[in-house]
Amino acid sequence: MFVTQDIVLRFFFRKRQIINKNFSIPKNSSIILAPTHRSRWDGLVLTMAMGRRVTNKDSRFMVTRSEMKGIQGWFLKRLGCFSINQFSPSISALRYAINLIEIGEQLVVFPEGKINKYGKKLILKEGLYRLALLATKKTPSVTIIPIGIAYSEVSPRFRGTFCLSFGEPIAMSDYLNLSINEFNEFLNNKMRKAEKIALKKVGR
Question: Which pLDDT belongs to residue 72?
Fold first, then answer.
């Protein structure tokens, strides 16, 4: 935490902004964070905004297997990441993710499924919705928080700026009647609305 938050982020970025107007962390609710994914910096930025120092909880990231290889994988594992096969997720990985939600940890799922550098509109992956739906059978309150992350340059540069904007929390229990496609379109709009605010703050 000291190395990533107090040294790396402060040294690399000139300005760091967090917009959380009218945002409050839901009490007694399991939280799934659903951020846009524009850079490998996203994990550190999100941890600064919603990590242990802010919420008293670590953020546990669900990432692809390819991201967990080599030195990067070693580092990500120590930041609270775990891998899942997007095309054929194992039962053990799904159980692990659902258990994190059930015990009140903060699970981070990038709904776009990969780094979407230029912010093109993608069809969101089905994983987040399926996990949230299964989790509602284990715990009565599951909240999804859409988040927009933006950088002053498309590829973050030294002494650039970033902004993270929280969208309005989504109570999963209110949307159980939606299909996966309907929910993903709804979530996508919330994420992009939050990102639009963040982009404006960084001058893009």
Answer: 64
